[in-house]
Design brief:
By secondary structure, the protein is of the alpha+beta class. It is about 35% helix and about 25% strand. It contains 5 helices and 4 strands. The protein is elongated and about 55 Å long.
């Protein structure tokens, strides 16, 4: 497969500033804080040509996840309430939990793979998953798949 046609998930801290500015300009347009591409590009500190060059190829993770399934794997401490706490975060975020698969805990850590549907989420899925990462007993969280 051509590497130029593949999709990537990249942490924002390693992206070039131009890409971040395109995302900001798109946000300004979507929230109607800017009325025109010219206004949005100027507010984001970006040229219109750079905006047009990248606008269709760049988006935040949660924008491509709306109404879709996201599968992630977590390593959780094997203790009462840890899994329940994670599920509460997901539920409070408005995601629909489709599947939960848990391994038998080894060394007091269980691997739990969860698939959620993001259509009814009250916040973006990235923010919800960040809250899961910060929860007590969560050792790691890795996004496995998006549909």
């Amino acid at each position: 497969m051509d590497l130029n046609e593949q999709l990537y998930i990249v942490e924002g801290r390693v992206l070039p500033e131009t890409i971040k500015k395109v995302v900001e300009a798109k946000r300004l347009l979507e929230t109607r804080m800017a009325k025109t591409v010219r206004d949005a590009a100027a507010a984001a500190g970006l040229s219109r040509s750079a905006f047009y060059r990248y606008k269709d190829s760049v988006s935040l993770f949660h924008e491509n996840s709306r109404g879709k399934a996201v599968t992630f794997a977590t390593d959780l401490t094997d203790a009462p309430g840890v899994l329940g706490g994670m599920l509460n975060i997901l539920s409070n975020g408005g995601v629909n939990i489709l599947t939960i698969n848990q391994t038998i805990p080894l060394n007091h850590v269980a691997n739990v793979t969860v698939t959620v549907e993001t259509g009814a989420a009250s916040a973006d899925i990235g923010a919800i998953l960040e809250n899961v990462k910060k929860a007590d007993g969560v050792h790691s969280l890795t996004i496995v798949a998006r549909q």
